[in-house]
Write a structure and sequence with these properties.
Layout lengths: L5 H19 L3 E9 L2 E9 L2 E10 L13 H17 L7 E9 L7 E9 L5
Parallel strand pairs: 3-4
Antiparallel strand pairs: 1-2, 2-3, 4-5
Length: 126
Amino acid sequence: MTISDPRHQFGRTSETQAEQFLLAKGYRILDRNVRTPLGELDLVAEDHGVVVFVEVKGRATEAFGGALSAIDRRKRAKLTKLAAQYLAQRHWSEKACRFDVVLVQGRPSPQARIEHLENAFDVAEH
């Protein structure tokens, strides 16, 4: 997949819209697109002292359901491992954290609908 791939561009644009949405809500963005051999964390943010791992999903249509339906059991388990790795590398094992999901629905524009699920799943659910 190259940067000229329309799906990749759509995903990156969705992440940018999600980031702007979270910034407007008062979140502080700590990291974006954290890549490891295990996978990638889309956004890592801070919300009132809580480290928030944000999975961003971009959908051009409503055909695939809402934000929570985009994160299956396997994806939750992977995000949990990535988050644990992220926290360990920064020696933040004592910090509170949670997992949010942001769904950007519709073509990238100011009219795109954004659905934000705070604390979308618990670590124990995977």
